[in-house]
TrEMBL record:
<protein>
    <recommendedName>
        <fullName>Large ribosomal subunit protein bL25</fullName>
    </recommendedName>
</protein>
<dbReference type="InterPro" id="IPR020056">
    <property type="entry name" value="Rbsml_bL25/Gln-tRNA_synth_N"/>
</dbReference>
<dbReference type="GO" id="GO:0022625">
    <property type="term" value="C:cytosolic large ribosomal subunit"/>
</dbReference>
<keyword id="KW-0689">Ribosomal protein</keyword>
<dbReference type="InterPro" id="IPR011035">
    <property type="entry name" value="Ribosomal_bL25/Gln-tRNA_synth"/>
</dbReference>
<dbReference type="InterPro" id="IPR020930">
    <property type="entry name" value="Ribosomal_uL5_bac-type"/>
</dbReference>
<feature type="domain" description="Large ribosomal subunit protein bL25 L25">
    <location>
        <begin position="11"/>
        <end position="86"/>
    </location>
</feature>
<dbReference type="Pfam" id="PF14693">
    <property type="entry name" value="Ribosomal_TL5_C"/>
</dbReference>
<feature type="domain" description="Large ribosomal subunit protein bL25 beta">
    <location>
        <begin position="95"/>
        <end position="175"/>
    </location>
</feature>
<keyword id="KW-0687">Ribonucleoprotein</keyword>
<comment type="similarity">
    <text>Belongs to the bacterial ribosomal protein bL25 family. CTC subfamily.</text>
</comment>
<keyword id="KW-0699">rRNA-binding</keyword>
<dbReference type="GO" id="GO:0008097">
    <property type="term" value="F:5S rRNA binding"/>
</dbReference>
<dbReference type="InterPro" id="IPR037121">
    <property type="entry name" value="Ribosomal_bL25_C"/>
</dbReference>
<dbReference type="InterPro" id="IPR029751">
    <property type="entry name" value="Ribosomal_L25_dom"/>
</dbReference>
<comment type="subunit">
    <text>Part of the 50S ribosomal subunit; part of the 5S rRNA/L5/L18/L25 subcomplex. Contacts the 5S rRNA. Binds to the 5S rRNA independently of L5 and L18.</text>
</comment>
<dbReference type="InterPro" id="IPR001021">
    <property type="entry name" value="Ribosomal_bL25_long"/>
</dbReference>
Length: 206
């Protein structure tokens, strides 16, 4: 899936003064760093859909350019986006990036009292731009017993995609939450004698 995003060229020295524009730069191995600006609302809408793992086609330069969002800088004061880096991908050439994991299905082990702990939420991959997935599915239905777990080596990758993380890295584990049992303090013989003496005194006074 490719998402279209209109942009405008800008001078490197030109400061963005309008609130509806974001300063950005486009660059790549064979693409000289080019300063651009992008409409704030358009980018936020696109970024919400595409994230960092979907190819975006920038339109507004001499020719359309296919890119990935490489970096987004937020204002430490207001929290809004102030700058974006777009990385140009080369058609037909393998690239390295990362994509989110999408957990699907229900783990049968939950019925046994197990709790699924998702410890990995994205993986690093290599693939060609045309094979880049928006996410990779991880099926939780394989977690049947309290001893089961899912590791990187268990993930089924789409065609043309290779995960570069360690095969032994944990993706999802099963945990058992044990209820804390509060033990009652043992009653000593002295406590019993004191209690009997107290009752005897109360009866005598009555």
């Amino acid at each position: 899936m490719t998402v279209i995003l209109p942009i405008q060229p800008r001078s490197k020295s030109l400061e963005i003064k309008t609130a509806d524009q974001i300063a950005a730069v486009v660059y790549g191995p064979k693409f000289a760093a080019t300063p651009i600006s992008v409409n704030k609302k358009e980018f936020e809408k696109t970024f919400k859909t595409a994230g960092e793992s979907t190819i975006i086609e920038l339109q507004g330069l001499e020719a359309p350019v296919q890119v990935l969002v490489k970096d987004v800088v937020f204002s430490p004061i207001k929290g809004g986006i102030v700058h974006v880096d777009f990385y140009v991908v080369e058609k037909g050439k393998e690239m390295a990036t990362h994509v989110p994991l999408h957990f699907i299905g229900e783990a049968p082990v939950v019925k046994l009292g197990g709790v699924v702990n998702k410890v990995l939420h994205e993986v690093h991959i290599t693939c060609k731009p045309a094979d880049l997935p928006a996410h990779i599915d991880v099926d939780l239905e394989v977690l049947v017993t309290l001893e089961d777990s899912i590791h990187v080596s268990d993930i089924k990758c789409p065609k043309g995609v290779k995960i570069t993380d360690e095969a032994t890295d944990a993706v999802a584990l099963v945990e058992v939450i044990k209820e804390e049992v509060v033990e009652e303090a043992p009653i000593s013989v002295e406590d019993i004698e004191v209690e009997k003496k107290g009752k005897a005194e109360e009866e005598a006074a009555a």
